[in-house]
């Protein structure tokens, strides 16, 4: 006759093992899980996507707030339709790039396509319309003697720029291939506001930034609006969700995300998302 297994010791061992596993993966007590800083695998669940970004209002805002940004809401809705849960975190941009390289997050929620960067992206951008176009605006101090006469005038101008950002030429070359002479390089959670403050104070001749982001920053800071003015524009770039190339299933996720985003852009949900931020859909260019 077979001897019965000793049930009590086995149950005790299972309980101890379960507690140990919980202690190894849980964040410290009091941690805000929506914007956690503890280390864990970026994709510990096949249905969770961990995306990071700096505060770049109105696209992205503070993680865990009542309004995290229209692009965050848009991506969360799209992923939800795919059966995924979005875990969104905010970091200074330089840290976002660092955590992508280290594999601590799955991707960046909103970023430009940049030559030489190996991040993966889909075909459908994030924006106020399905084409996602938003031009770069050149901002100077009101009444400044500095004038914008096309891209060449940016070769020697004293410019306020954000650490880790990418820009149209010739700014890109000055920031990453030159000696950065004449550049005021800023960082932090909200670099757009800091760049505007620098220009308003005369510490820089101008800044170049996404138009929607500049307009949102000035709307929240009326005194700055009175201190600066638009000096010109540059071409438009598009913003995309971008994933690590080594993330399992990344290309499949992006294909599904494209389909889901297209469906939302065509639905009544899209204007409702924008309305939470005082925005309206932009007409798609016919060109």
Describe the structure in your own words:
The protein has 287 residues and is an alpha/beta fold. It has two domains: 128 residues, Periplasmic binding protein-like II (D-Maltodextrin-Binding Protein, domain 2); 104 residues, 3-Layer(aba) Sandwich (D-Maltodextrin-Binding Protein, domain 2), CATH 3.40.190.10. The chain contains nine helices and ten strands. A five-stranded mixed β-sheet has the order 2-1-3-10-4, with helices on both faces.
Give average pLDDT, whole number: 86
Shape: globular
Low-confidence stretches: 1-34, 36-45
Secondary-structure element order, N to C? HEHEHEEEEHEHEHHEEHH
Q: Roughly how many Å is the radius of gyration? A: 23 Å
Helical fraction equals 25-40%
Identify the CATH homologous superfamily of the largest domain: Periplasmic binding protein-like II
Overall domain count: 2
Category from helices, strands and their pairing: alpha/beta
CATH class of the largest domain: Alpha Beta
Itemize the secondary structure elements and their pairings.
Elements: H1 7-25, E1 48-53, H2 70-82, E2 85-90, H3 93-102, E3 107-112, E4 120-121, E5 134-141, E6 159-162, H4 171-176, E7 183-186, H5 191-200, E8 206-210, H6 211-220, H7 222-227, E9 228-237, E10 239-243, H8 250-265, H9 269-275
Parallel strand pairs: 1-2, 1-3, 6-7, 6-8
Antiparallel strand pairs: 3-10, 4-10, 5-8, 5-9
